[in-house]
Amino acid sequence: MQNDPHVKEGRSVDAAQGKKPGWREQALRAVHAQSPLRTGLQILLLFEVLIITALALEPTARAHLDVWGADKINHIAAFCVLALTAQLAFPKLAMWKIIILGLGYGLAIELAQRFTGRTFSLFDVLADFIGLILGLILAIPLTYLLKTKMSNV
């Protein structure tokens, strides 16, 4: 923020005039105040979304799997990791929001699969939901450990 023309001597022009800081300054403060670990987790989350999307939309001729076969295990694992990373990357984001966003993402993937020759499956969405819940459950002790470790540094 030191090179930002809108900021003078640690204060923004708006703050010097008694105005509330704008969205740009608030975003810059948030980025600068954020730990490198959290930034790394946010980048990891982006890569996870890209990889899951690429794999989910890959047109493949799959053999028919039973309802709770390997495909569902893959859905559970992917969305478990996604929810865990999301909670650690954005600890102030409410868990129910992660579930809603995750379900929306899973539903969007299922709808988009129709255009790749694959089929929509509510069981896949259910497996996504189970993965989201498991990931958030695993995030609870990890979040506590990270907060404890970061406060001791």
Could you tell me the mean pLDDT?
A: 81
Strand order of the largest sheet: 1-2
String of helices and strands: EEHHHHHH
Principal-axes geometry comes out as globular
Q: Which blocks of ≥5 consecutive residues have pLDDT under 50?
A: none
Number of strands: 2
Rg from C-alpha positions? Answer: 20 Å
Structural class: mainly alpha
Largest sheet: 2 strands, antiparallel
Note the gap between the termini: 25 Å
The percent range for helix content is 55-70%
Total number of helices:
6
β-strand amount: under 5%
Structure characterization notes:
The chain has 153 residues and is an all-alpha fold. 69% of the residues lie in helices and 3% in strands. The protein contains 6 helices and 2 strands. It has a two-stranded antiparallel sheet. α3 (36-56) packs antiparallel against α4, α4 (70-89) crosses α5 (95-113) and α4 (70-89) packs parallel to α6 (122-151).
Layout of helices and strands:
Elements: E1 7-8, E2 11-12, H1 13-16, H2 23-33, H3 36-56, H4 70-89, H5 95-113, H6 122-151
Antiparallel strand pairs: 1-2
